[in-house]
C-alpha cells in the first residue's frame, strides 16, 4: 500500500496550485488532471524533491495518466516514455504505488487503463 503524507500533499497543492480542500481521502486520484500532465512531468523533473514528496507527486502523475488513457490511447507512448524516465532511476522507491496500479485482478477486464503498462514495466528486467 502506498501512503501519502499530508506535509507532502500540502506542499504539492501550493506548488502546483491544485484545487485541494482539506478533505481528500484519495488525494492523488481526486486531484489528478490529465490536462496538466505535461506540466506535472516538467515540474517533477525541475525539482529535487525529498523521497516522500517524489512518491506523492508520482502518484498524482500516474493517476492523471490513467484518466488520460480513458480518452486518449497514447499510442506513441509520449507520456508513458516520460513517466518511465522519471521512474527508472528509482524504480524500487515506487514499488508500492506501481503494485497498486498493477492490480492482481482475477478478471483481466477489471483493471485500470494504465494497468497493462504498469504490469509490463514491472516485468522488465
What descriptors fit this protein?
mainly alpha; 125 residues
What's the structural blueprint in terms of helices and strands?
Elements: H1 6-16, H2 27-30, H3 37-46, H4 51-71, H5 78-87, H6 95-102, H7 115-123
Describe this structure in words.
There is one protein chain. By secondary structure, this protein is mainly α. It has one domain (6-19, 26-123). 58% of the residues lie in helices and 0% in strands. The chain has 7 helices and no strands. The chain has helices at 6-16, 27-30, 37-46, 51-71, 78-87, 95-102, 115-123. It is globular and about 35 Å long. The relative contact order is 0.14. The mean pLDDT is 92.
What are the low-pLDDT stretches, counting only 5+ consecutive residues below 50? none
Summing up helix and strand content along with how strands pair, one would put the structural category as mainly alpha
Estimate the helix proportion, in percent.
Answer: 55-70%
- How many structurally independent domains? 1
Give the count of helical stretches.
Answer: 7
